[in-house]
Amino acid sequence: MGNTTGIVNIHGKEYATVAYRLTCFRQLHPDGQIVTTLEKDDDGVIVMKSEIWLDRSDGFPIATGWAEEVRGSSNINKTSALENCETSAVGRALGFAGFGSAEQIASADEVEVAIARQAKECATAKQTLKVMAEKITEKQVKTIQGYLDHCTDGDLKLQRLLDWGCVDHLNELTTAKAELWIGQNLKADILT
């Protein structure tokens, strides 16, 4: 991140790094303790709990934070999922205890990962929508027309196809819908 203050501005909001939160905690409570517990490490999913204690004799932590990571879900989680999960749990617990930004619990790293994940999901969704919106190919038109020409009720089947596709003309169908219809109808007729 290249930031020496420990506060990072992401989309106009201030986020404290976990290291910054930890430094603040240690300065104010040198005898305080942070206790982390591995709650789950099964099927590639890691769950950590972190407790912030000012004094262990109190009997209760002042804050608790939880985190979950999936092994291999990001570059850092390919090699250091356990460590990443622990850091996130500590950062969240410190945030709940009031260390770092008062209005934001997530650390700067968590926010950056979430933004990157959202951007990737958005790009994938846009690509999927683009593919779904592509118009029927010439090959698909010929395949459907050839099939319908050999059916005794071809006109009726064409009308059902257009109604199902919510279009007025065959060439207005999308490639995805055309492929689905071809797969369902031609294969069904071949098998019967």
Proportion of strand residues? 15-25%
Unreliable stretches: none
Q: Which structural class should the secondary elements be placed in?
A: alpha+beta
Overall outline? rod-shaped
Domains (count): 2
Number of helices: 7
Radius of gyration: 28 Å
Q: Average pLDDT, to the nearest integer?
A: 79
Strand tally: 5
Distance between the termini: 63 Å
- Helix/strand order, N-terminal first: EEHEEEHHHHHH
Tell me the major beta sheet: 3 strands, antiparallel
Helix content: 40-55%
Task: Describe the overall structure.
It is a single chain. The chain is an alpha+beta fold. Helix content is 52%, strand content 18%. A hairpin with a 2-residue loop joins strand 1 (7-10) and strand 2. The termini are far apart. The protein has two domains: 7-128; 138-191, no CATH class. The protein has helices spanning 18-28, 75-79, 81-96, 108-133, 138-149, 154-165, 175-191; strands spanning 7-10, 13-16, 33-42, 45-53, 63-70. Strands 3-4-5 form a three-stranded antiparallel β-sheet, covered by helices on one side. It has a two-stranded antiparallel ribbon with strand order 1-2. Helix 1 packs across helix 3 and helix 5 (138-149) runs parallel beside helix 7.
Properties at a glance:
three-stranded antiparallel sheet; two-stranded antiparallel sheet; 2 domains; 192 residues; alpha+beta
Can you describe this structure in just a few lines?
By secondary structure, this protein is α+β, with helices and mostly antiparallel strands. Helices cover 52% and strands 18% of the residues.
Fold topology:
Elements: E1 7-10, E2 13-16, H1 18-28, E3 33-42, E4 45-53, E5 63-70, H2 75-79, H3 81-96, H4 108-133, H5 138-149, H6 154-165, H7 175-191
Antiparallel strand pairs: 1-2, 3-4, 4-5
